[in-house]
Amino acid sequence: MIKKFLAAVAAGLIALGSFTTVDAMSREEIAAINVQTAADFQFWNDDSPTKQKIVEFVEDVTNPNSANYIPPEDRIATFDMDGTFYCETAPLYFQEMMFFYRVLEDENYQAPKKLVTLAKKIQPKILAKQKLTPAENKAHFEGLTKAYEGMTPEEYRAYVRKFMDTNEIGLTNLKRGEAFYLPMVEIISYLTNNDFRVYIDSACGVDTMHELVGGVIPIQFDRIIGSDFNFTSTGMGKDNPHDHFYDRHTEKIIISGKPLHDNAKTIKIFSILNQIGKKPVLAFGNSSGDSGMLEYTLQNNKYRSMSFFVICDDVERELGNLTRAKSDTALALKRGWNPISMHDEFKTIYGDNVRRNI
């Protein structure tokens, strides 16, 4: 089903344009986005309250004469990935969609019958944006690693790169490796250029994000935090890894197939404590899975702090859901998170040639 759908999408693709005409951008063009001052923003509407708040915040806390001055070493900003600065609606998260490609489309992989049965059962629901049962969600989550059991980290990352070159579902002229929200990339660039230490704190797998984000978004490799693979060694057997002596001549590290160590909700706070060691002053998310990070940033912060919540309310340039958007906006306002309306505030999302086609 996906293969036929992608073929139809590919047949209607519009040729990639240039950076200046804001067509669908290549990874190289996205990487060239550089915002140093308020005047450099191109992809936000002029009356965007979010842009105004961010600029005012940055100019305030970077001013040594301001009572709200934050030293560079404490200028921490954390971003969720899927749905915050990267597409999660076509029709689901990157690595969840890669599971279907791996199990049902990859002619070089003989998937276990159990995974094939699962994929064929839940794929129609995912494509129709129907809710999975708790059991189906659990099995899908487990399949995210089971489908790559025995791969080395390098082989997995190569597989991610391969999948990045496939077309997004439901959006024209857009490959999965290019599906970044251009206005949010500008925010990351702006913060980086003003001496903020920007981190990703996502439920997506770390190894997945290293390839998807690397070389495109100005976030250092060691500042990418996410769900972790369970690894093993080809020679470890039933040994405890704490006791096993790894022989570089006879063994290699592989994916065990056990479920990911998930990084979501309150676990995102623990990740900040363990891997950053300082509380963020800015946090950006888009779902309840980011609630821990957003709330923790605002709780008893010794510095001025703000949390932002991206609302997917655009149904022409993105696969928005207005019912969810209304609910998400209400949640953000209730919790004191600043809602970001994609429809009202983004001058473009992926580029002017990217439109909804379903």
Report on this structure.
There is one protein chain. The chain has 358 residues and is an alpha/beta fold. It has two domains: 2-88 and 173-230 and 260-345, Rossmann fold, CATH 3.40.50.1000; 94-155, no CATH class. It has helices at residues 2-11, 27-31, 49-61, 94-105, 113-127, 134-146, 153-164, 182-193, 206-213, 266-275, 291-298, 322-335, 342-345; strands spanning 76-79, 197-205, 224-227, 231-233, 253-255, 282-285, 306-311, 338-341. The chain starts with a helix and ends in a 13-residue tail after the last helix. Mean pLDDT is 93; it is low at 1-22.
Helix run count: 13
CATH H-level homologous superfamily name of the largest domain: HAD superfamily/HAD-like
Largest sheet: 6 strands, parallel
Calculate Rg over CA atoms: 21 Å
Tally of strands: 8
In percent, how helical is the residue content?
25-40%
